[in-house]
């Protein structure tokens, strides 16, 4: 009986050892299969694999490639407002202004820094005697507010500014750098000092405030280029009269290290047309896109 008991115990021990070996082999085969799969599919990065059957956690150093679709989708349906007056009859009042949440970008008068913050719009009503219309006036407690916009995903409370108030005159490109990459805004068009007198950009004169006086620009085009990639058009106007297209602000508003911009692309001296551009890190061909634009006309 004693020998029989010893044989049974030996068999049990062998079975236990074999079972443990099979479990170890299973874990190894699982890890080997996963590694081969990752190598075949070109996956790169850090992967954590957990074997729940025997509570074994395997950490490997398999790199994971970042896919373009892993970036947040480019915001849609963002609205903007300008600190300006809006005519009731000619253009109509902006709709639902008081019910929406608004942010603003403004330049602090003390620190001279650009700031993005939630704001409570100051709305009042008056009458424009020039055209005999009632008007809605939209403003902020900050005198230097550039524009107001509805919030979007990715908006950062920290604002990095790299450039502000640069004229965008044909044949005079504006170049700036962010995080080691050069960005180029290249304006093109035909300059006129008078209706029929073509001039060169170097011949333009400034007024007392240092602002270029341009009578007309015909066939105006503005292209954007990131590094050595192909430039692409972001704005255009067949005729610009009495105003100078201007880069009002460039920097980073969504903390992705890529440029965002606000441009004044007004085409008439009694109107205001601002463009809000936001970076799109998921699009290598067009890394900066128009988020929204708004034109307000207040001519007499």
Descriptive notes:
The chain is mainly β. The protein folds into two domains: 2-65, no CATH class; 69-297, no CATH class. The chain has one helix and 19 strands. The protein has one helix at 2-41, and strands spanning 47-51, 56-60, 80-81, 85-87, 102-107, 114-119, 122-128, 133-139, 145-149, 160-167, 174-178, 181-194, 197-199, 216-226, 232-241, 246-252, 260-264, 271-279, 288-297. Strand 11 (174-178) and strand 12 (181-194) form a beta hairpin.
Protein traits:
single chain, 300 residues, mainly beta, five-stranded antiparallel beta sheet, 19 strands, globular, disordered N terminus
Topology, pairings included?
Layout: H1 2-41, E1 47-51, E2 56-60, E3 80-81, E4 85-87, E5 102-107, E6 114-119, E7 122-128, E8 133-139, E9 145-149, E10 160-167, E11 174-178, E12 181-194, E13 197-199, E14 216-226, E15 232-241, E16 246-252, E17 260-264, E18 271-279, E19 288-297
Antiparallel strand pairs: 1-2, 3-9, 4-8, 5-6, 5-9, 7-8, 10-16, 11-12, 12-13, 12-14, 14-15, 16-17, 17-18, 18-19
